[in-house]
Description:
Blueprint: H1 4-12, H2 29-41, E1 45-49, E2 57-62, E3 71-76, E4 92-94, E5 97-99, H3 103-122, E6 130-135, H4 143-155, E7 161-164, E8 172-176, E9 178-187, H5 202-222, E10 233-241, E11 251-260, H6 266-282, E12 289-297, E13 300-301, H7 307-320, E14 326-329, H8 335-340, E15 345-347, E16 352-353, E17 361-363, H9 364-382
Parallel strand pairs: 3-6, 3-7, 7-15, 8-14
Antiparallel strand pairs: 1-2, 2-6, 4-5, 5-17, 8-13, 9-11, 9-12, 10-11, 16-17
Helix pairs in contact: 1-3, 3-9, 5-6, 7-9
Amino acid sequence: MLTITELLTQLVAIDSRNPLLDAQGPGEAAIAAATAEYLRAAGLDVTLVEPEPGRPSVIARLRGAGAGPALLLNAHLDTVGFGAMAAPLTPRIEQRRLYGRGAYDMKGGLAAVLAAAAQLAQGQRLRGDLIITAVADEEHASIGTAAVIAHLRDTGVRADAAIVTEPTDLQLCVAHKGFAWASISTHGRAAHGSRRADGIDAIMHMGRVLGALERLDAQLQERPAHPLLGHGSLHASLIGGGSELSTYPAHCRLDLERRTLPGETAESVAAELAAILHDLAAHDPHFSAAAELTLFRPPLETSLDQPIVVALARAGQSVIGQILPITGATFWMDAALLGAAGIPTAIFGPRGAGLHADVEWVDLASVQACADVLVATARSFCG
């Protein structure tokens, strides 16, 4: 059996760039195949689900003896693009840090899951099932985890709790923000630039929308802060409109992102935008605009008294020798999809730095510690 460092080195050397983020990205097929082969060799039952060609996810199951709760361990296979990283697929080790694209986000966590699964497969049989999911497309639209959840539901496989091994620096994360992507279109009327009375400037009208959105963002900062996540926010991401210099623009489109807190929903975000447009239209009969949510991903908040949180906290203290700090994350993770599917979910992963950056590394000792904590948690939770 490979050491965890050897395993991680092999994983980082596989190009698994998400093709929807990098046109040169090959997707997850190669790393899914390597992951599936490792888990089969360890003795797990392995299935691949592929909602889109070349974008497979791996589901592996270590069947328990029965009468125990089932635990799901989740890690994603894809990475972002290389950026300006030097030798991104040539892992190098310096001062117990492994460098390379995806080392921290999140092949370190993936290696910890795989090593833990292999160790548990060789030890005393758990009472409950251990389910491993290594998924595609977390960095974009999470088609992998969505397909995995559907497959488990359709096949009647139950998970009573989950741990996602995104990098948390060995802290116990129980909450993260959600997000909504939305587009707003303002509608004007094209006319020759010399005929002011005939034209309606859609870009000027979008300026009013931008001002209202800026005020909304300021209001979000004045609301009570979430104890782990702080405040919600929004920003204008992309904008475009018009056709030529001497024509009044008939159309302008703005794409924005709204980061959400627990309790905020797709409906509440849509209502915020609708209220802005309604107010602007009420003050100008020529103002015409429409808003549409194009993607919504929910936030996550898991209670500290959930059995998986309690088991993970105890295992972490036992293995690492100190109480795990409780934290929240501002970025979104697949954990929210598992939580929305009714699976209480916690997040725990290794230390490192360089998320999506040109220099990325993971601390090797923390990858081993993460694997050891997963093993101890599984034995406690599954029985």
